[in-house]
Specification:
The structure holds two protein chains of two kinds.
Chain A (H helix, E strand, L loop, with lengths): L34 E2 H26 L24 H6 L10 H17 L1 H4 L11 H23 L3 H7 L13 H8 L2 H5 L18 H10 L13 H13 L4
Chain B lengths: L1 H12 L2 H7 L3 E2 L15 H20 L10 H10 L4 H28 L8 H23 L4 H15 L5 H9 L7 H33 L6
The chains are: A mainly alpha, B mainly alpha.
InterPro entries (chain B): Cyt_b/b6_N, Cytb/b6-like_sf, Di-haem_cyt_TM
Subunit structure (chain B): The main subunits of the menaquinol:cytochrome c complex are a Rieske-type iron-sulfur protein (QcrA), a cytochrome b (QcrB) and a cytochrome c (QcrC).
Cofactor (chain B): heme c; heme b
Chain lengths: ~250, ~220
């Protein structure tokens, strides 16, 4: 630290008065076409960031964050799945050389070597060369690692039936069903129950709770069928049909 | 006026060196996409930081509604998604941001690796950067449990089995994370919450500060 007689400080602090050490060099003294960070370059970064943010917000609006049913350890046959960026480690544990008795190889040894190598890269690749073509060992090891990660991730995700999975784990709203209502009487008198369940939860047919169809469409479907549901299922009066349709359309509505 | 305020503060606290480090420095030609379009690869680090800021802000707002408790965690997330104004967007930002930040980190790491920018004198900054990568992965892992849906619960059971398989310390590591040798439940959720919201962000902030101070001290690596 610079000391000496004649130095003046602000108050009794250690901040020097009339300090000109920090006057920066003129930008023209740097090589090449440099640009000041503040404010010129920051403005460009700001613009790039704004474009990125708009794209990111479009993603969040277009694809809402998923939420499955509340955690229930007794859910039968649930296949655990990590977030996509852990799929490659998860896939590794499926291979016989890295599971069962050798699971330590899959959970500790291989990831440890890979990430340890990444951490210590500057001490493993010590030469002065920076160009990737001039350090073939480092470059090829990294390329192999990238290919392996992509391959394992792809292998893991191609074994998942994403659509069935999403369907099975969808949140089903609990709707109070008034079994005394006229609509439910019609529902139980007709053959609806055998396919759509006692609580309209769906058995061989789909759940009717919160259906997207309007009352008029439901009337049509009850008579003429839809998809694998045959026509002529409903055999009551028009008045009963109206009650049934209103009952089903009213379920799950706020 | 602003200049006067600046001078008044500067005379007392000597902030000019700090200001220079943060803002008043030159951007070399080879990292400026305005001069060389291929220099966009230098954006990945900045975008990682940008998404990290999004994660911090959206996460702070999420904790205004989230309840780290097995009875209410799922319900609070459901309520946030369904009932709270823009709740779905805030949670969406945090959910997708977790993926985007990993992608950006991956690209940034590859840029630094293939350019050999980790070589002398920047070895220490590379190590700090890889540690940041680990912290970010751990944040993703712990955050996955917090909505307390089936996906979260069963994935965490697997995570804990993996932790248990570590030789010598596995058993203790599992109990440290889960709070119990057998049950994945209330203790696990609060522990993962504490790790996700306090421990790992603290580590993240320290490492990020060291990362940025070293960048400013050493400057950006030169052109290839």
């Amino acid at each position: 630290m610079h000391r000496g007689k004649g130095m003046k400080f602000v108050g009794d602090s250690r901040v020097r008065e009339n300090d000109d050490r920090h006057i920066p060099k003129d930008y023209s003294e740097y090589p090449g076409r440099t640009e000041p960070f503040w404010p010129n370059f920051l403005l460009k970064e700001w613009l790039a960031g704004a474009v990125f943010l708009v794209g990111f917000l479009c993603l969040t609006v277009a694809a809402p964050a998923p939420l499955e049913k509340m955690a229930d350890p007794s859910t039968p046959g649930y296949i655990p799945l990590p977030d996509w960026y852990f799929l490659f480690l998860y896939q590794l544990l499926k291979y016989p050389f890295a599971s069962g008795d050798y699971v330590v190889i899959g959970t500790v040894v291989i990831p440890g070597l890979a990430f340890g190598g990444l951490l210590l890269a500057p001490f493993l690749d010590r030469g002065p060369e920076r160009r990737p073509t001039r350090r073939p060992v480092a470059t090829s090891l990294m390329l192999i690692a990238i290919v392996a990660v992509f391959f394992l991730t792809w292998e893991a995700s191609s074994h998942v039936d994403w659509e069935t999975r999403a369907e099975q784990n969808k949140i089903v709203e609990d709707v109070e069903i008034d079994k005394e209502s006229e609509g439910y009487q019609v529902y139980s008198d007709q053959s609806c129950m055998s396919c759509h369940g006692e609580n309209l939860e769906g058995v061989s047919g789909p759940s009717l709770i919160g259906t997207e169809h309007s009352a008029d469409e439901i009337k049509d479907i009850a008579k003429n069928g839809i998809g694998s549901m045959p026509a002529g299922q409903f055999e009551g009066s028009d008045e009963e049909l109206q009650k049934l349709a209103d009952f089903i359309a009213g379920l799950g509505e706020e | 006026m602003l200049q006067k305020i600046y001078d008044w503060i500067d005379e007392r606290v000597d902030i000019t060196p700090i200001w220079r480090d943060i803002a008043d420095h030159e951007v070399p030609e080879h990292v400026n996409p305005a001069h060389h379009f291929s220099a966009f690869v230098y954006c990945f680090g900045g975008l990682t930081f940008f998404v990290t800021v999004i994660q911090i802000l959206s996460g702070m707002f999420l904790t205004m509604y989230y309840v780290p408790d097995i009875e209410n965690a799922w319900n609070s997330v459901f309520y946030l998604q369904q009932e709270v104004a823009h709740g779905q967007i805030v949670r969406g930002m945090h959910h997708w941001g977790a993926s985007v930040v990993i992608v950006m980190l991956f690209l940034h790491t590859l840029r630094v690796f293939f350019q050999g920018a980790y070589k002398k004198p920047r070895e220490l900054n590379w190590i700090v950067g890889v540690l940041l990568f680990f912290v970010m992965l751990a944040l993703g892992l712990t955050g996955y449990l917090l909505p307390w849906d089936n996906k979260a619960l069963f994935a965490t059971e697997v995570t804990l089995q993996i932790a248990e398989s570590v030789p010598f310390i596995g058993e203790d590591l599992k109990i440290l994370l889960a709070g119990d040798p057998h049950i994945v439940g209330a203790q696990t959720l609060t522990r993962f919450f504490a790790i996700h919201v306090f421990f790992l962000p603290a580590a993240l902030f320290v490492l990020m500060a060291v990362h940025f101070i070293m960048i400013r001290r050493q400057g950006i690596s030169g052109p290839l």
